[in-house]
Amino acid sequence: xxxxxxxxxxxxxxxxxxxxxxxxxxxxxxxxxxxxxxxxxxxxxxxxxxxxxxxxxxxxxxxxxxxxxxxxxxxxxxxxxxxxxxxxxxxxxxxxxxxxxxxxxxxxxxxxxxxxxxxxxxxxxxxxxxxxxxxxxxxxxxxxxxxxxxxxxxxxxxxxxxxxxxxxxxxxxxxxxxxxxxxxxxxxxxxxxxxxxxxxxxxxxxxxxxxxxxxxxxxxxxxxxxxxxxxxxxxxxxxxxxxxxxxxxxxxxxxxxxxxxxxxxxxxxxxxxxxxxxxxxxxxxxxxxxxxxxxxxxxxxxxxxxxxxxxxxxxxxxx
Length: 319
Fold this sequence. Notes:
Helices cover 42% and strands 4% of the residues. By secondary structure, the chain is mainly α. Among the domains are: 72-158, no CATH class; 190-249, Tex RuvX-like domain-like (DNA polymerase, domain 1), CATH 1.10.150; 258-317, DNA polymerase, domain 1 (Orthogonal Bundle).
């Protein structure tokens, strides 16, 4: 049994043996190949002296490019940059001068020259002061363009600046103050019984539709007897009415009245406060009991309560 198992799994055909041998040869070539590179590829040799000379040349060029320009410095107090003049132009030539105590804000041109300051630097200082510049402490002279570091160190001990906090009368600016009286807006009062749509649209919250509804309601009533009736207009929010009610007045108390002794049901029912039920009751009572002597006689009708009477009475008459 074991012989049959071994012969079945360990015996190879001719093609399998050839493939296995070829695969082993390929693996062996790939392993050996890196060791054969030095025999075929020769790396370039680097001359250390030539490399060092190239580095030295680069350092020389960099030094030349830096020295070609003036050195740039920064003041730690105000971060204002200034430059030291280039020595090649001859600007850095030291000028001897006498030292004495001075105020850089008031020192004149001869005084600066006596200190040994160059004419171009003096012109820079005077231009700075003419434009409103001031020196507040001795170290501020470091901001002067053209002063070298050794000159600054030499001059600083002799700087005596007077109090610059006080403002001279020439520096004070007088501003004219103009007072404006605030205008008070007085809203126009509108007579609601004579107003048109233009006057109503000018009110806050009232558009063309609401203005037309107010006028239609006024015409159906026969006129407003009191301002509160405007709030009964269909579609008019109470919040809007509360905002505008103080803008209305009623100067013309005259309203169109209905004669309850002659008016028909159809004539009365068009009034917003009467409608058909109440109009029909008024006519039927008149037919049964005769004409009304007083407007108060309609109180005898069961439908007419005290509130209803107070509401419709201004629009009724008996003759």
